[in-house]
Automatic annotation (TrEMBL):
Annotated coiled-coil segments of the chain: 380-422
Reactions performed catalytically: GTP + H2O = GDP + phosphate + H(+)
GO molecular function: GTP binding; GTPase activity
Residue ranges of domain Dynamin-type G in the record: 76-328
Taxonomic lineage: Eukaryota, Metazoa, Ecdysozoa, Arthropoda, Hexapoda
Subcellular localization: Mitochondrion outer membrane
Record protein name field: Transmembrane GTPase Marf isoform X3
Any one Gene Ontology cellular component term annotated for this protein: mitochondrial outer membrane
BP terms from Gene Ontology: mitochondrial fusion; mitochondrion localization
Record keywords: Coiled coil, GTP-binding, Hydrolase, Membrane, Mitochondrion, Mitochondrion outer membrane, Nucleotide-binding, Transmembrane, Transmembrane helix, Ubl conjugation
Organism: Drosophila albomicans
Residues of the full protein shown: 51 to 472 of 807
Membrane disposition: Multi-pass membrane protein
Length: 422
């Protein structure tokens, strides 16, 4: 049984649950592949020697080689996927950038992406993008160029642009998290296509709301459709732009607390009563009040060696910054456990069934070989018995012949001496 918690030892990031489980299952599959190859070679040799294994059986063994190789390939590519949804300009791209600690996705007015953008790690320090249906690696020199590439292209709203960013630049990319940014849910009529093409294998969904307004019908409708197609999707809700509320001159602290609790209640109700995807306790851990723009600025300051608060936009920076970090921690726990379950549990039971099937086939062949060997032994025994019988007979015949010859010789001698005497 695959227990994700088994892998949660000393490492600080909860993402290591997935990283270690992936390494472990890849190692196990490496061993399964060796076993399958070795067995198939052995079976082929048996087939050449004797008629113990038939053609169908041999082909079945060979099919396991392909099956295991295909699973290994999928396993090596498996990752954790998070998809961001919400209305245009709520800050989806900014949240992704804040999590990546760098301005990778273009954001802001005029930089609205009208297609899906996926950010994933690349090996070898390269940054490039790839458009759907093409293998061409388009070099990404800087963010401006990337923004232009995404805006100028007449891309279909449900098509996908993949942005490959050097793994070593960000721990989330290094640990195999893939980010998907979507066009605003307010612009699309094709929610079904979106979900079928980009969401069915997402481990976590993040709904990015604008804390200055209430959740819209389009935002709700999108998640209703998601939860009809997926059983219990993991949904986090970020009330973004919380700095703006703190900046409102007419907002007293008590007023702010009231707004926050109203939003919280609505979000929890949405997850529990409307979508029925979580219970109250779980839902309370999935709703956050953050400022993506501020967090990104703080992290850029940090990367320059400055204190993070230099990125602050409004009063209460520290609380919002902590809340963003709290979101990241809970998100990491959720995504790694969910990905281990959905991605590896299936593979581990397939691996078990392949090795189980091969074992019972081998047991079967072994049984046949034993019967075959016993049969040969019986034939050998019978032959030995016969030979022994013939030998005894021969000895008797020889003895009789000897006696006869002896008697004949004596008889002849007697006759000869008799004749001589006469
Ligand atoms: P998207 O369309 O949902 O991806 O939104 P963007 O990330 O492109 O953000 C739209 C605009 O809102 C940009 O100018 C961002 O800088 C700004 N923005 C995003 N998040 C925040 C935030 O938390 N606070 C403030 N004040 N502005 C934000």
């Amino acid at each position: 049984n695959f227990n994700p918690m088994m892998y949660q030892t000393n490492d600080k990031s909860p993402l290591q649950i997935f990283v270690r489980a992936k390494k472990k299952i890849n190692d196990i599959y490496g061993e399964i592949e060796e076993y399958v190859l070795e067995t198939t070679t052995f079976i082929n040799a048996l087939h050449a020697d004797a008629e113990i294994v038939d053609k169908a059986e041999r082909e079945l063994f060979e099919s396991y080689v392909f099956k295991v190789a295909a699973i290994r390939e999928v396993l090596q590519r498996d990752h954790m996927k998070v998809a961001f949804f919400g209305r245009t300009s709520n800050g989806k791209s900014s949240v992704i950038n804040a999590m990546l600690r760098e301005k990778i996705l273009p954001s802001g007015i005029g930089h609205t992406t009208n297609c899906f953008c996926q950010v994933e790690g690349s090996d070898g320090g390269e940054a490039y993008l790839m458009k759907e249906g093409s293998d061409e690696k388009l070099n990404v020199v800087n963010i401006k160029q990337l923004a232009n590439a995404l805006c100028q292209e007449k891309l279909c709203e449900s098509s996908l642009v993949r942005i490959f960013w050097p793994r070593e630049r960000c721990s989330l990319l290094r640990d195999d998290v893939v980010f998907v940014d979507s066009p605003g849910v307010d612009v699309s009529a094709n929610l079904d296509d979106w979900i079928d093409n980009h969401c069915l294998n997402a481990d976590v969904f993040v709904l990015v709301l604008n804390a200055e307004s209430t959740m819209t019908r389009a935002e709700k409708q999108f998640f209703h459709t998601v939860s009809q197609k997926l059983s219990k999707p993991n949904i986090f809700i970020l009330n973004n732009r919380w700095d703006a509320s703190a900046n409102e001159p007419e907002f007293q602290e008590s007023e702010l607390a009231k707004v926050k609790s109203q939003h919280t209640e609505r979000c929890i109700d949405f997850l529990t009563k409307e979508l029925k995807v979580s219970n109250e306790k779980e839902a309370a851990e999935r709703v956050f009040f953050v400022s993506a723009r501020e967090t990104l600025q703080a992290r850029i300051e940090e990367s320059k060696g400055n204190p993070p608060h230099l990125g602050a936009i409004a009063e209460g920076f520290q609380i919002r910054y902590f809340e963003f970090q709290d979101f990241e921690r809970k998100f990491e726990e959720c995504i790694s456990q969910s990905a281990v379950k959905t991605k590896f549990q299936q593979h581990s039971s397939r691996g078990k069934s392949v090795s189980g099937d091969m074992r019972s086939m081998l047991d079967n062949i072994y049984e046949r070989i034993t019967i075959f060997r016993n049969l040969k032994q019986d034939q050998k025994n019978l032959l030995t018995e016969r030979i022994q019988g013939t030998e005894t007979q021969m000895m008797q015949v020889t003895r009789e012949m000897k006696m006869k010859i002896h008697n004949m010789v004596e008889e002849v001698e007697e006759k000869v001496s008799k004749a001589l005497n006469e």
